[in-house]
Each structure stands twice: as C-alpha cells, then as structure tokens.
Design goal:
heterotrimer; A alpha/beta (656); B alpha/beta (297); C mainly alpha (217); B: 297 residues; alpha/beta; Glutathione S-transferase Yfyf (Class Pi), Chain A, domain 2; Rossmann fold; 2 domains; four-stranded parallel sheet; 12 helices; 8 strands; 47% helix; globular; C: 217 residues; mainly alpha; Fumarate Reductase Iron-sulfur Protein, Chain B, domain 2
Chain lengths: 656, 297, 217
Amino acid sequence: MTPKIGVYVCHCGTNIAGKVDVKATAETAKKLPGVVVSRDYMFMCSEPGQELIQKDIREHNLDRVVVCACSPLMHEKTFRRACSRAGLNQYLMQMVNIREQCSWVTEDKVQATDKAQALVAGGVGKACFLRPINEREVSVSQNVLVVGGGIAGIQAALQCADAGFHVYLVERKQSIGGHMAMFDKTFPTLDCAACILTPKMVTVGQHPNITLMINSEVAEVGGYVGNLKVKVRRKASYVDHSKCNGCGICMEKCPGKATNEFEQGHGNRKAIYTMFPQAVPNKPIIDKAACRYFTTGKCGVCEKFCKNNAIDFKQEERLEEIEVGAVVLATGHQVYDGAKVTRYGLGKLPNVISALEFERMVNAGGFTKGEIKLADGSHPKAVGIIHCTGSRDSNHMVHCSSVCCMYSMKFAHLIREHSGAEVYNFYIDLRCVGKGYEEFYNRMLEEGVHFIRGKVAEVSNDARDPSEEGKLIARVEDTLAGVVRRIPLDMVILANGISAQPDADDVGRLFGVSRNAGGFFIEQHPKLNPFGTPNGSVFIAGTCAGPKDIPNAVSQGAAAAAGAMTVLRQGKVLLESTAARVNTDLCSGCRTCLDICPYRAISFDEELKQARVDETMCRGCGTCVAACPSGAIEGRHFTDEQIASEIEGLMRTLGA
Amino acid sequence: MKKYLYYPGCSQKATSRAYEEALLAIAADLGLELQEVEDWNCCGTTPVMAVNKVLALSLAARNLALAEAQGQGELTELVTPCPSCWLALHKAQHALADDEEIAGKVRASLEAGGYSYKGTIRPRHLLEVLVNEVGVEAIQQKAGKPLQGLKVAPYYGCQVLRPYAQGDDAEHPQNLEKIIRATGAEVAEFPLQSACCGGTLVATRPEVGYQMSADILRAIERSGANLVVTPCNLCQATLEIVQRKTPKFLGHKTKLPILAVTQLIGLAMGKSVKELGLQRSLNAKRCLRTMGRETAA
Amino acid sequence: MSPQPETESRQEKVFQGAAAPGEPSAELKTLFERKQDHQFLAELDKLPEGAKVKMCIQCGTCGGMCPVTPLLDHSPRRLFAMLRAGMTDEVLDAATPWVCSSCYRCTVNCPAGIKITEVMYALKRRAIQAGRKARSSDYQRFASIFTRIVSRHGRSHEMGLLSRYMMFHHPVAMAKQSGLGMRLMLKGRMPLTQEKIKDREGLRRMAAKALELGEGV
C-alpha cells in the first residue's frame, strides 16, 4: 500500500528561509512518491504550526509525516506529540534537519536550496518504510546512588535524603569532605572552610536516610534505566565500624607510620588512621601497607587497646549489591601536578610549593600549625604566586582552572595577614566573575598585593646579582610595562589547575557517560541541561563535570539531586523504543557486539550461542548494528531498508 | 656492529675537529660503523633559513638525497654529531613529509641540481644514538678507566633538546647525565644546563653572546664541577672562546676544561690524548691536568 | 559640517610600553585604523609557521624566556600585538627577529603552541624581501655572506666568512680577534682554505632554483 505522506517545511523565521528557498522546497516535495500534501510555514514548532499537521493528518488520512526544520534534538519530541494527538503513532514522524545541517552551514543560497531538497527527498524516502513502534514503561527504584563525597556529592546526598529518598553515598577515601576539607579559608568571604563544611559532613554521617559507604568504590553497574543494580566494592578497613565508637585510642597507640597524604606529604600519620580530626565517619581504617601486623606479623597493639573488639585483621574486601533508580556522579578532580611544569622547579628547588601545600601550611590544624615558614624554618619576606600553573597552556591543559585567580588572591590576603611579606601575583588575565569576586580583587589592590601581568617564564636559583643570592628568581615579562623583570622571592606557590580524575574514563564507562577533551564528563546540554547526561538516570555534579568553585559545585549538586528525584518521583520510566534487535537466524555468535556496546546492553546466551539485547538497557545508539559482521542486528527505527531508502532519495535528487 | 650513514657537518672538519676525532676513535669499540655520506654539503643551519626557506631546506635535503642513494635502501639512519645540522636535516625531512606546498618547491630545486629524494632517511643525533642504541651499559662496560673523582657538568645547549627533545625532556634532560654516570664520573647539577650559549651571536653581537656564555660558566663553576661536557660543537667552541674573556664579564677567570661528549667517553675508555684531539683545546694543559694526563701529553 | 581630523603630530603616536634600558620612554601615539596594514598578518597566517600567531594570549612567556632580552627592541609578545594592530612597518624594522639566537625555548614553552622561532625566521625573510634595512643589519649581512659561501662551494668556511664579514663591517673588532684566530689556526681548528664539494655544478643549479622558488615563502 502506498503511504500517504505530509511534508512540512519550516522557515524558522529567517534561520532557514534566509538561505533556503522554502517555497520551492515544499513545491518540489509534492512530486516525491507518496507525498499527498506539502506545505511551508513560518514556525512549525508554534501552536498553529503543530495544529496544521494535526489537521492534515485528520483530513488527508496521512500515515506518515515529514517535518523539515531544525535538529531532532530540539523539536523531535514536539512533533512526535503532535502526531500522537492526531492519532498517528509517533514513530511515523520523520524529522529532516535543514537548519543546523543546511542553512546555517551553507554560504550559497542556491546550493543551500539544492541541499535542502535532497535532504527532504531522503527524509521522505525513509518515511515510506517507517513502522509504528509501541513504547514500554518500567517502574523505578526509590534509592539514589551518589558517587563521591566531596562538597557536590554531600549536597546532592543531603537534598535527596531530606526529601525522603534513600541515598547510598560511596566515598573512596576514609572520610567524606573532598578537597574542601583541606582548604583553610574560602574566597571571597574568607569563611573558614572547615567551619562551614563540617556541619554538613556530620549531618550526612547521622542522616537516617543516608547509607555512607567509605573506603569503597563502584565496581559494576548492571540492570536498566530506573532499576540499576550496582555492585560496590567495600575494601577491607580491618576495623568493624559497627563496633567502633571512634574513641581514638588505637590511633594514639599505633606504632606504624605512613606519609600523611592529607597534609600533602608533610609529616606522618599512623597506620590506623582517620584522615583528619573532623573526619566523617570518625572511625579509623588500617593502611595495610604501613601496618606492622600485616608487614611483620607482630604487633596488634590496636587490637589490644580496643575496648570494643572492633579491630578485625581477617576482614576481607567484599562486593555489596544495591539497587538504585538514579545516580549522581560527583567524583571530583585531581589537582594538576605542578612538577610537570618543570621550569617552575617544584620538587627540585626548595620553597617552591603547590597550592594544596600552602592551604595546609596556612591552616591552624596543618603541618606548621598555620605558620607560613620556609624549609629552614625562617619566615619569607617575599612570596610569588604563579597563576595558571598547567592551565591555559596547550603543553599541559588547555582549559582555565576557573578557580586559581580567586584562590591565588585568597592566598595573597592570607600571606599579608599572617606574615606581612610582600606578595607578587603573576597572572595572565584576572577572571573574577563570581558574586563579590571583583570586589575581592579591589580589596587585594588596597592591601598592597603586587599584581604582575605575565606568565612566569621560569623560577631558578641562578643568581645574577648580589640581591638575588639565596633567592628564588622568577623571570617574567611584565606585559603591561613592556619589560622583563627578575623578581627575587623566598617562596613560590604554584596555583595548580584542575585536571580530571585519572580513572574518570573507567567511571564514565561504568555509567555510560562520555568525556570531553579535558577528561571531564559531558553534560546532556551545556546550556539547558548542564547537570544531566544522555543516560537519563545518571546526573553529574561538581568538578567531575568541569572545573568550578564551591558555590557552583554546590548548585550543581542540588540540581543533580533534583534531576535524580524527578526520575524517582515519576515512578515509571519510558524505555527507549528504538532498541536494537538480534535476528537469531543470522547471529553467528561471534561476540563482536558484546564489548563495543557502550551501555552493556548485550549479553551472550550461552545455550543458544547467540547475542541478546536487553531492551531495557539499550539506548538505540546503533553501534552494534554497524559492527555486526553478519548483519544480524537491526536498529529499530534505523533499519537497513529505511536507511537505504533515505540514501536513495538523497542521491536521486542530487542527480547522482 | 651497527651501521649508520654519517653526516659530520662543516665544523667537525674545523673548529670541532676534536669532537669528530674522538668519535671516530671510540666508534668501533662501541659497535658503531659510520659510513660518511660522500660529497655532503653544509646543512644550511640558521643563517640560510633567515634568507630563503626553500634554499635552506634544499641544502639540507641534498644531503638526505645523497644519503638515500648511498644507503641503497639498506642504510636509512643518518647520524650526525652536530645539533644544528641534526635540526636542519630533521626539519627538511619533516617539511618534505608534512608540508606539500614547500615540499614541492624543495623537490623542484633538488631536481634542478640533478638530485632526487624519496624520503626514506631518518636523521638522528649522536647523543640520542649513544643512549638509545649503543646503550649506557655498553659505554659503562667499555669504560676501562672510569673517571672516578671527576665532577662533570652536563651542558646541553639548545638544539639537541629544542624544539624536538628526541625522547628526552626539554626542560629536564637526562641523556648526558646517563653518559656521565656511565663513565664513572659524578654529575654536577647547575641551573643553566639547557640555556643558550649565545654562539650564534658571537660574530654579530659579541658583547651579548659572550655574556650568555659567561653566565653559564659561572653557574657551572659554582656547582663545583671539574669539567664541562657537551654534545654541541658550537657550544663547545663558544664556551672555550668565552672562557678566555671571563675576567671582563665575571670579574675573574674560569678555568674549566670543556669537552665534547665523545672526548669524555674516550677518556673513560683510556684513549690517548692524540686520539681524542685533547691537544686542540684552547686550555689543553689544564684539560690534561684535570684528567690526570700530564705525562701522556 | 564634518569634524576636522586632528593634526598628525597630536595623533600619530602610540604607547609602545617602556623603552629599552637607558632610553627615555616612548611618546604616546594614536593610530588611525585606516592607515594600519592588516594584510601582512593575514599573509603570515597562511604560512605553516605563522598560522598560530592569532592564538597568542599575550601572556609573555616568550619574553620572560628569551635569553637575548638585552638586544630585543620588542618581546615576541609585543611584536604579535603590533602585528594585530597593523603596525607592519614597525614589525619589519624590528631588531628582535634578527637577534633571535634560535634557542627555541619560547617555541617549546609557548602556551598557545606558536612556533615563535620559526615566525622570527619568517619575519627576517619578509624584511629582506621587502628591502628593509633591519636595525640589526649586521646579522642580515652575516647571513647573506654565509648563504653565498655555502651555495657556491657547498661548505661553510669560518675563516672566509668571518674575514669577509668583519673586514668590511667591523675592521677594528677584527684586529682584536686576530689573536684568537691565530690560536685556533695553530690548533688545527681553523683551516685557511675553503673546502669545496665535488658536484658544485649541481649544487649551484639547485641553489639558483631554490632562491627563485623561495620568494614570498
């Protein structure tokens, strides 16, 4: 039976009509096989535009609709709904993109019109072979998984928990708190970071709706949208936290020592430890590599002193399976290693330190008890802060750290306040775009901080003048004064940038979230959905989605929580109807498709020796369809027949 | 024996004769067979690039063409001890492979001279070959008279590291350090190991060129080094020449032996003063005294 | 009535940053956009080495890195800013490209990935092609003598090069340096005669063709 097709060419104001002759395009479409009616209209997505389609479906008994307008990412849903309202299965609507892929990218009007007509013919060709597809719903688990216990993850967990949903918060380290827990003050208000963070941490620890899983990582993600089965690797901590009351006697008595990571390698911590005094949970874990019981077989001091018998040297790593309806990824970042910018001498020249080292140094609880000191114990008279270390540099990271301007100025203030030393901030541009940020910059100018516009070329101990003896010399072009300057300094702080977590790729693969060139998770839409991902039940928050400061991380955490709760509150989710299907007559059981499926939707039926697509997990991306050497997998809504017909339509019009 | 095509470069026949003499003295022991490219010409180095890009690349490419013909497809690796030559040859190789427009012009020029180049030669610098092909272990094995007690400053200069680091780190190189340790000597650390010696300015802007080398000599002296070793012939000559003028620039005279990397290895291998061309140093006597070779001279 | 253009003397001034050490600071000029040349930057952009000049973020890494700052009249960064301002004359007259020692430190470390040393070479070639007498014309002379020697004989010859360069341009300095020359000669490091390759005919034909094809590149 010949289909009855309606074609609708949108002007999109002048967006399309400015380049494409829409009238001619609609007119030529009338001659295409199966086309019953063809129209052009100013804005097809407007109410009257949609009404036009619905009226035609009813009056002309249309069984296919081709809308030639913008990208399907924008309005496919709009036109699908319009067709549904008129009683036509929504999958019988085909969109043709003559804006992003045609009028916006073609200079010449004639060429644009030719291209549009070819695209329309292709769309009509495909439409002839469209088949109705019915949608299916599944119910949604009412738990949320939050991965990462930094400030973004904490915020997301609290929002969901307060709203009554159960939250599993998985944290890799001994304590939640993330990078913020290491900071001394926060810009621009100079609030004490711990004072504003620890109350939230404590709330998380005590919340009846939050299951806190520390020293743990997500190992596997299975199940399907709304019903994810997640296996969490609970690493052995050798302390039974159900018995431990956090008295701390074990840490006091432990003879084993290890480098203190929290203090950036300055000083030691015990082998049984909490990361810092306000850790949540305030219950220690044992570092097996440093523990004398494990390394020498003798010791067990902690076990002897523990009144609650909480020490358990036999504890083993285990996998715990949980079921969740939505996930918030808040896995954070890694501070870029300033030693990689070798010309600044970190790790080679004494008194060149990283930003986190300075945070700990200036913190009253840190390794110098808040005193700003040089390696020899004396106090610096001149300190340089090098902005953009590793950032905005094609040799390192192209992106802006988005925080180092502000935290460098915070450092400048703290140094002035604590020591009275001269402070030189070396910057390329000052990006003070937050609330109260520019005002903070003004305050630093008032406080007498030296600002030199120029990227430091190198830090060395190559003294060329008596005044430079024993100093660190920063050589820099003062780009405003137009001279090269040599600034003798006692201490240099590298304002390291923000890089993606080294294992972000693995995490992304687990949850089906892709990453940008810098390694950060990609959002569903950079403007309109900066917290969602193409995987409808996975949301992203904090620096795992890109460099950002605390207020932005908190906002995104709350937004991701709202996204997760929206999925949960709906109670049901629609499954992707364009799922792939294996033709069992053709599948040879080669397993090619298994590894390439980005959503892990394909499993292998050992009995039949054939691949099987789990339609609840398939997102209809078509990767397996293209990869299958036997041509045994069909993408519903993208069948070979449909695509061949689309190409034929295109080619015929192009005269090829 | 590993066979290589060999491109000496002009200065190996003049100011840096000793560098080449020492190279030829140690090559066989290190398992290197060097086959000099016949009728090679000047690589063009920096001045020609300032005048005409196609000419500069063609001068370098002519050598690649001759090397290719001589190697007959069996020898494709072309070793040169001069960093500036290496860079010129490497740049020409790259331009011919990657830049169609310029490659066309260079090929046309080659053709006008009766040469042709298919593009099969891989230019390599001697230092990198010593570390990656000969290997530090082999050097250590052959060092029959290890240089214990000597503190040697590794001075790289520019073009052996920049813009192409050849597998080393441009800001924190290690290749020379590896060789120094293999000879049994100690490494003297100093801040200007890859700073520019100013050699290209010695003729045109001597005051500035000299100051640059003088600063390097001062930093080396402060490190407590007994001698300096470099893989660059221009740097070697420049430092030697400037050392004669240090009183004017530093207020005192520095007295450092300045050796080419091949000379250092040769010393550790027990080669004679003559074989290593040590008598050609501008401060030969001091050199020999430092090395404990007074009598041998 | 349309406003009268301001007089040249008041207008033709530009802020050039601080002057070289020991010089009084430059006067403040104003540039009229209509007089500026933006063609040159567009041409540079088409060369493989110049394509990234437009990516400069004016950070000054190059100027801070440069080992020959005492000789620079402008840092590479400022030359790029001047190119963007259409100050082609000033750029082609600049000493900076001519005193560049080709150490490549700026090239390796430029955050924008600009091959600064290669851009300097391109500027030198342009200056020669445009018939500019660079402020640092010594190097220009040196380079052309060198080029002449190697494209005639196939080998460079320090003795010939230096004597030709110095005799005509720096006779006093030459006398000063003669002691050093003698020492090198005695050490066998400065041959008196010019080395020549065998196939000089082929070389000269190649060089002639290259010189012709190299115009404007």
